[in-house]
Amino acid sequence: MSDGPWLVVGLGNPGPQYAGNRHNVGQMVLDELSRRTGAPFVSRGGGLLGRRPQAATADARLGTLPGGVPGPRVVLAKPSTYMNVSGGPVAALARYHDVPVERVVVVHDELDIPFADVRLKRGGGEGGHNGLRDTSKALGSKDYVRVRVGVGRPPGRQDPADFVLKDFSGPERKDLPWLVDRAADAVEAVVIEGLEAAQLRFHTRA
């Protein structure tokens, strides 16, 4: 396995008012990966991403390989821009760390997947997700890995844009730690085992 790093990005909106939104579940997963690895996030700006911080990043080793060997190098990243302009920080980090697009993993909320399900894919459309659309545009490619965290469709006639900008419901919050943990496991599986093996594990129901 090459020792070149992976870039793992959690999409969301900045600020405490958005922290519990469905749209921010990707960043919740990154917080869990930071906790697991013991790698704290620090704001990155300056010469890397412009004068103002555009992302919080953490450098870590993810998981453990056979024999107790530390897992692959990863750069965990949470853009501090709004969701619809996530691509600039993602592309800048990929260039700075020399990460090819096939080693970029984006964790995001997904309306077309039931709540608490996790699905994995490489490439494809963005399904109306503005964060993915901007990321694809900035990277110049759609061929990055997506860890799709299901939040389900809005009830009744509620606008999907309003739905994702609201916090998880009370019943959902009871299962949210389990969902975040499962999505973090999926990221680890992609990086350590490869996408196909991870898909087999996470797309197969017991």
Automatic annotation (TrEMBL):
Marked site (Discriminates between blocked and unblocked aminoacyl-tRNA) residue numbers: 13
GO biological process terms, semicolon-separated: protein quality control for misfolded or incompletely synthesized proteins; rescue of stalled ribosome
Residues the record lists as binding tRNA: 18, 82, 84, 130
Family: Belongs to the PTH family.
Function: Catalyzes the release of premature peptidyl moieties from peptidyl-tRNA molecules trapped in stalled 50S ribosomal subunits, and thus maintains levels of free tRNAs and 50S ribosomes.
Complex formation: Monomer.
Protein name in UniProt: Peptidyl-tRNA hydrolase
Organism of origin: Cellulomonas flavigena (strain ATCC 482 / DSM 20109 / BCRC 11376 / JCM 18109 / NBRC 3775 / NCIMB 8073 / NRS 134)
